[in-house]
Amino acid sequence: MFLPVNATNIELTSPLQTLQDSVYVDTDPLDKREFENLKDKYDGNEFIYERTVENSGWWSRFKQWLSDFFNNLFDFNSDAKASDFTDIILKIFYVVIFLMVVFFIVKAIINKEGNWVFGKSSDKSIIPVTDIENNIYDTNFKALIADAEKENNHRLAIRYYYLWLLKTLSETEIIDYDVEKTNSDYYLEIENKDTKEEFSYTSYLYNYIWYGEFDIDDAQFETAKKAFTQFLRTLWK
User: Fold this and answer.
1) Same domain membership, residue 151 and residue 100
2) Per the confidence metrics, is the pTM higher than 0.70?
3) What value does the mean pLDDT take over residues 24-37?
4) Is the residue at 22 inside a domain?
5) Domain of 216?
6) With 90 as the cut, is the pLDDT of residue 113 above it?
7) Which own/partner pairs from 56-64 qualify as long-range (CB within 8 Å, at least 24 positions apart)?
8) Do 228 and 202 contact (CB within 8 A), yes or no?
9) Confidence class of residue 179 from pLDDT cuts 50, 70 and 90?
10) What DSSP string runs through 131-190?
11) Are residues 179 and 227 in the same domain?
């Protein structure tokens, strides 16, 4: 039994027509939204994810320049090797700077105490700040020297002789005594030529024996003692 052609078309298209009629069309008005300029908002360094030498910091640019310099100088096979070599050089530089800073700090501290490494400066503060030096005018150096000689402490005896000499020079108004002054300071204050020469010699003996920390025998001590006592006698006249 054959159906009419028109009847077939109606059966095939009828469901499609029903689906088409069921589609919802939204006719509500749309709200138009506007956004601020995002390019200006996200233009800071924290939003730069791919950097070049031009937009890097000065330290990065310096390292890149240094890496290029070493690369040209040693003809490395790659930029990576040049960069590694640069990092090694910079680490060595940091270590050297650190050691230099430590060196100068230690040197400043030690020089403040009046000596450095293997010896003592002859142009340092001649006398450490102790009770004797601060009370030089009230000290009986003759008695102190006698006690030091009894103990055969020649170095200490010479030190007392030198302090006694400074006391006498100050009392005769040849120098202005100060515990912070140096040999050179006192030497420049002395006007008389002969007194300058005697002071220079006795200062040499004092520096050699006391600051040099040398053990001297009886003969050497008597020679130094004679120089101090003679100088003192000339000042007492």
Assistant:
1) no
2) no
3) 64
4) no
5) 131-236
6) no
7) 63/90
8) yes
9) confident
10) HHHHTGGG--HHHHHHHHHHTT-HHHHHHHHHHHHHHHHHHTTSS---TT-BHHHHHHH-
11) yes
